[in-house]
Every structure is written in structure tokens, then in C-alpha cells.
Amino acid sequence: MRMLSGSNILITGCSRGLGLEMVKQLAAKKTGKIFATCRAPENASELGKLAEDHENIYVTKLDVTNLNSFKDLNDNIKKFCGTDGLNILVNNAGVSPKSTRINFVTAEQMTETFFSNTVAPLMLTKSLIPLLGQGAQNCDKNSLVVNLSSILGSIAENTKQGGLYPYRASKTGLNSVTRSLSIDLASLKICAVSVHPGWVQTDMGGTNAPLTPQHSIEGVLGLIDGFEMAQNGGFYDNFGNVMPW
Amino acid sequence: MRMLSGSNILITGCSRGLGLEMVKQLAAKKTGKIFATCRAPENASELGKLAEDHENIYVTKLDVTNLNSFKDLNDNIKKFCGTDGLNILVNNAGVSPKSTRINFVTAEQMTETFFSNTVAPLMLTKSLIPLLGQGAQNCDKNSLVVNLSSILGSIAENTKQGGLYPYRASKTGLNSVTRSLSIDLASLKICAVSVHPGWVQTDMGGTNAPLTPQHSIEGVLGLIDGFEMAQNGGFYDNFGNVMPW
User: Fold this and answer.
1) Is A115 part of the contact surface with chain B (CB cutoff 8 Å)?
2) N or C: which end of chain B has fewer CB atoms below 10 A?
3) What is the pLDDT of residues B115-158, one digit of tens each?
4) How far is A122 from chain B (nearest CA, A)?
5) Per the CB < 8 Å rule, is A183 touching B169?
């Protein structure tokens, strides 16, 4: 059974970039309910328009670093999904500090980036375990946690560029979290996978990037839709290739 | 030329465990000055005794999470080493939180462990770059940053156990830092390497561990002493075997 079909999906960081593109493409597919979170829905006009045009899309206010808000988020999802639960969580929200060569890196950059990109996805996933477990119980497929990682989180791929300490450590840390989640949650029928979306033309990726958000997310959604147990706890790029840790 | 011979060495976390064992074994070798740091020298009686018996051992008070104290540390090293600089930095100090299964992991554990095990070694290394660069200029060998990592920081090796989110993410993050340092500092003739010391009978490793501190540190010091450029930016165990990321 395809993963996206009929699935209730939560995606963080949907006001722009890859998150917005993901909602856009999912809107045209036969999924279940789509919870698209962003920090300031009042400023996310494109996302708001998508929700106006598709009644299964729910724009939900969420700052993933505000861990105290996760209970309200859970209540909100329960209100709309009842006992169906959640099938897919995409931890997409993240930050990327600008100047991070060794001469400029600060402890604050390190901790703030780690909190947004590693701790927040872990704690959000933890808070959603009951709903994700419920989702898996109510259908014949596992639930799935998708962590948006990066090639910059691959230590093996860092052969020449160096630097970028905060972002690299946070994404490497996220990959580590993915792997432990994939083991710890297996008995609940919840899987986890890390995805490098490619180098994409977004605010984060810049204009020199070779991939459009559309191209990248077509690949990422293809990977999610065709997800198999053998990929549990793994790290893949948008083409489905295995990434080295 | 062997790495340890005549080298001025700074080791953090020397009051007990692997740090203490390292100072013990180095005391019997022909190194230069050994700066052995710990949080509370007044309670580190065994380390104090070593310093009494060996005039090249300097017990130095340092809490690696107190980043503001690094300037004083630098001044202290300069006072004793003059323009010889520092040849080897061993980032050994670290913490390991106890209960870290998914049901018990907290954001505080994640951030505190990351700060001690990843951010502090990075910022300490950054502060010592001038002294490490000076060390390399004053002799015919590169300086070396040794980051005490762990097999638990290897994502590839985490195939069955899971959990341990704070410790795993912090050591994986430290490996990521090692790799970027090895690239960024190459032009200054400063190398960096991550080392898994093995599973050792210490307060951290517990009594079931197969290795004694003596056995582990003999291996680690052998690795350091025979360090070669081809190992720059790599991850090795106490036997010198390559560890997967």
C-alpha cells in the first residue's frame, strides 16, 4: 500500500520553501488530512490560499521550538482526526545560521541551531507518538517520521568544505535521532527516515542551487510514498539514493 | 617523528577515569609539559599526587562549559610554554546522562549534553588555535586535536540498541566538528581526529566493561603517537581500527 494514500500528515515549517511546496503537491494527491504548521499563519498568504481551496488542509500555528505548545497541537489534531490518528510526520522546520567558519562560530549559534534542528524534531516526535501509533493501528501500514536532513549532515561527504559547524552538527545529530527513533518505535509500527532534499533554490539554498523546490519535493514525496521497511532508520536523498552518514 | 615526543599537551577532565589514566601513562613518557585540567583540583588527590611527583605536570582548574575562562587558560599555558605553544589538545571531558530512552528523554538533557560534549570542545579548540598553530610552527610535526568520541556516536553502529539520544547526538555532533576542524585548520598545520576509547571500566562505562582504563589508554596513546596525515579528520577506536560514522 502506498504511504501517502489516505494518510493524515503533519508537516512543520510550511510558510515557504520546501514545506510550502510539499503542501502544494500533496493538495493534488488523495491523502487524508494535511496539518501544515508555520510560526505566523497571518503572514503565510500562499499557504492560506491553499487551505482555502482544499478543505483537507489545516493551517496550524506552531513554533517548533516552543515545546510547551505541543499539547495544544495534539489536541488540535485529535479534534479533526478523531481516533484515526496521524500517519506521517514531516519534521521540515529548521534554521541555518549564516557565518559559521571556525573564526566566526559562536556557542550561541551552536546551541540555537541544535535546538531548532535536532531537539525540537525529537521532542515533537515524542509528543506525537500516541497519535502516530494510533494511525498505524487503524490501517495496514506503518506510520512514518520523516526528518528533513541535509547532505551537510553527512560527515563522510564533508571532505573539502569544512566549516558550517552549527548546521552540520545539528543535521548529523538529527540523523542520529532518526536512527534511534527507528529502533525505539518499531514495536509501535512507527518508522523513521532522514532525507536530504537536494540543493534547492529556496531562501536557505540560494539562487545558485541546481534543483527547483518542485523537482526536489517530487522526489521526496516519491520516496515517502514508496517507503519500505528496509529503509527504516536510513538516510536518503531526493532521488532515493542512500546517503553516507 | 612520534607525536608525543617532546610535545606540550593539554588534556581536559583529568580528575578520574580515562583522563587521569592518560596523565598517568604520559608521566612515564618523554613528553613536554602536560596541562591536566579538572573542575575541582582540590578534590583530585590522585592527579595532585602525579603532579607532585612530576614537575612537567601542571594541574589546571577548568570547567570546559565555562567558555569565559578560556582566556585565563590560554594565559596560563603561555606563561609556562613561552613561544613553544601547544602540540596536542585532548578534549576528554564530557558528560553522560543516565535515563535517555525515548519515554524519558528531555530537551534539557539534549541541550546540556550537547553543550558539554560538542560545543565546549569546539569552543576550547577555537580558543587554542593560536597556541596550537605556534606549536606546529616550532617543530617539524603538525599539532593535533584529539576528540574523545564514542562508538555511541556512530550512527552506523546503532543497529539494535536505539535510545541514548543526548549522548549519541552529542558524540555524533563532535565527530562532525572533528571533520570540519581537520579541514579548516589544515593550513595552520593543525590536525584533528575522533577516538572511541573502547568500552572501559570507569564511572561512565560501569563495571561490566571489558577494557581496563590502562588497556584503553595504551591504545589511545599509541594511536596519537603514531598519528599520520592520512588519519586527519577520521574516527578510530583504541586499537586503531577505522570506525564508521
Assistant:
1) yes
2) N
3) 999 999 999 999 999 999 999 998 889 999 999 999 999 999 99
4) 9
5) no
Above 90 in pLDDT, residue A205?
Answer: no
List, for residues B50-102, the tens digit of each pLDDT value: 999 999 999 999 999 999 999 999 999 999 999 999 999 999 999 998 767 89
Is B177 close to A169, i.e. CB distance below 8 A?
yes
| Smallest Cα distance from B64 to chain A, Å | 12
Whole-model pTM: value is 0.97
What average pLDDT does range A184-198 have in this prediction? 98
Sequence-separated (6 or more) residues with CB below 8 Å from residue B154: A245, B172, B175, B196, B235, B243, B244, B245
Residues of B in contact with A111 (CB under 8 A): 111, 114-115, 119
Q: What is the mean pLDDT of residues A145-174?
A: 97
Task: Output the CATH code of domain A9-237.
Answer: 3.40.50.720
What is the grid cell recorded at A67? 515545546
- DSSP sequence for B5-73: TT--EEES--SSHHHHHHHHHHHTS--S-EEEEES-GGG-HHHHHHHHH-TTEEEEE--TT-GGGHHHH
Quick check: A217 and A197 in contact, CB under 8 A? Answer: yes
Q: Are A167 and A117 in contact (CB under 8 A)?
A: yes
Interface contact B126-A105, CB threshold 8 A: yes
- d(CA B86, CA B128) in angstroms, rounded, equals 8
Instruction: Return the ∠ at Cα B133 (arms to B128 and B134), rounded to 5°.
Output: 100
- Within 8 A by CB and 6+ apart from B131, the residues are B74, B77, B78, B81, B85, B86
What pLDDT sits at residue A202?
84
Residue A115 pLDDT grade (very low, low, confident, very high; cuts 50, 70, 90):
very high
Q: What is the ipTM of this complex?
A: 0.96
Contact between chains at A175 and B172 (C-beta distance less than 8 A): yes
> Please, which pLDDT band fits residue B202 given cuts at 50, 70 and 90?
confident
Contact A172 B170 (CB under 8 A): no
Of A30-39, A129-138, B175-184, B199-208, the least confident: B199-208
Q: Please provide the size of chain B in residues.
A: 245
C-alpha span between B31 and B54 (Å, rounded): 11
pLDDT reported for residue A95: 96
Q: How many CB pairs under 8 A join A and B?
A: 132
Contact list in A for residue B118 (CB cut-off 8 A) is 110, 114, 169
Q: Which CATH number fits domain B68-237: 1.20.120.1200, 1.10.287.130, 3.90.550.10, 3.40.50.720?
A: 3.40.50.720
- Closest C-alpha among A189, A241, A185, A225 to residue A31: A225
Asked if the Cβ–Cβ distance from B165 to A156 is below 8 Å, we say: no
Backbone phi and psi for residue A242, each to the nearest 5 degrees, phi listed first: -65, 130
